[in-house]
Fold this sequence. Notes:
By secondary structure, the chain is an all-alpha fold. It has two domains: 4-88; 95-141. It is 75% helix and 0% strand. The chain has helices at residues 4-17, 21-40, 48-66, 72-88, 95-109, 114-124, 131-141. Helix 1 (4-17) packs antiparallel against helix 2. The two termini are 37 Å apart.
Amino acid sequence: MTLLVDKIREDLLAARRAADSLKTKFLSTLLGEVAIIGKDNGDRKSSDEETRSVVKKFMDSNRFSLGKEIPDNYRAILGMEQEYLQTLMPTTLTEAELRSIITGYITQMGKPTVGVVMSFLKAHYPNRYDGSTTVQLVKTLV
């Protein structure tokens, strides 16, 4: 299975070959941010979870910038970046899927606390749900 960091590296090489300077700069920055995590922690490749945390940080930063008054050309660049970043993220669970997972876990565990359910979700479904919405759902089900 290919790691996300390898996919970013492959996409960077493709952007360089295509002489796409904007995408090359963006992917170089992204790859640098992702790679440093693994290098600083045992000189290894960054895991997919670590990569997704950096991707999420980039997406949040872009979302913030897109909410501001910015020139159209910069808005288009950020839009391109967001589209690419979204391809690296897992699909978000729907409320119905979350409800089913949480209900099944509660049935299996008896009467777990909200914290226990959230820990289970974080361990088994990282980056696939909105935390604040999910906490509210868990509170209604526990």
